[in-house]
Amino acid sequence: MFLILAAVVIIAAFVVFWVLRANAPANGGKITWGVSFSGAYAGYFDLDWRQTYTDILDDLKVRALRIPAYWEEIEPSRGNYQFADLDWQLLEAKKRNAFVILAIGRKLPRWPECHLPEWAKKLNEEEQDRAALAYLAKVVSRYKSYSSIRYWQVENEPFFPFGEKCKTISRDFLKKEIALVKSLDNRPVVITDSGELSSWIGTASLADILGISMYRVSWNKLFGYLFYPVFPAFYRERANLIKYLVSDVIVTELQVEPWAPTDIKFLPLEEQYKSMNLERFRDNIEFARRAGFTEVYLWGVEWWYWLKVRGNDTFWNESKKLFIE
Question: Total structural domains in the chain?
Fold first, then answer.
């Protein structure tokens, strides 16, 4: 009986401690705020992606970016490399002393997650792996002299099964990719993982820096909108535990756009605002502050800009406050 009572007291004390920590403000410190930007996603919204990008740099004053080097854009036909668009983005960042996380690999940010050229999809697994490594080598070799690149991100959430016809990346192959990148350049390698649906351990063991997502609401066909019942400490304490494996943990994907049941641009704004409105935008920013991370990349800048050109600059202007801190 005594042992049961003692166990109850210990569990209760742990729960109280956890709740108190969860609601306690994080230690003070400056946060580097950045954005993930995809020219392809800006194009989905029928935006001029170059104008969108320069306005992100010049109007928002963003100085930290995460940019994907989509294989399908870089090598549209085998051996035919097209670097002009990525060159331009990196040079524009350099002009403004902005730094970039350059994401490379088969599985990269934005739907459908796997961004393979059509020709590569027709290869068998062994041939495709060789082609993917050749693309990686070409990109790193070209851009290793660019001072605007701060980190290489290899693949995006490689072990998380998400995306259209997008298989997870095998651990062995990811090791080969990381080794190749490190053989060509000495900048840190970021490996990303789901902030909510993973232990982070297996991913962190391969990374110099672990990048995590931070989502507060999602949607699926079975449950509709799901609001995650987690506190900032859910991320903060896990990051503290994992730091013995990596030099840092950063937030590479903070949700500040809707998670919609269908294509966003065809969805009424009233429905979009169910998962992301100004109040939730502010709340997610404050949530990230309280979680205690010092580097946070916002996910949704293309959506804010799309709203802005349609006459609603609320989110765009709200985000400006972050980048002038």
Answer: 1
As a whole number of angstroms, the distance between CA 86 and CA 24 comes to: 42
Contacts of 232 (CB under 8 A, 6+ apart): 22, 26, 287, 288, 290, 291, 292
Domain of 202, CATH number, reads: 3.20.20.80
CA distance to 12, 13, 57, 174, 232, per residue, from 20 (Å): 12, 11, 39, 39, 11
Amino acid present at 301 = V
Amino acid at 165: K
Which H or E run includes 217?
A: strand 217-220
pLDDT digits (tens, 9 = 90+) for 15-34: 434 444 555 445 457 899 99
d(CA 106, CA 73): 12
Q: Is residue 143 part of a domain?
A: yes
Interstrand relation of 64-68 and 32-36 (parallel, antiparallel or unpaired): parallel
Query: What is the model's pTM?
Result: 0.91
Alpha-helical segments (H) within 61-124: 71-74, 84-95, 118-121
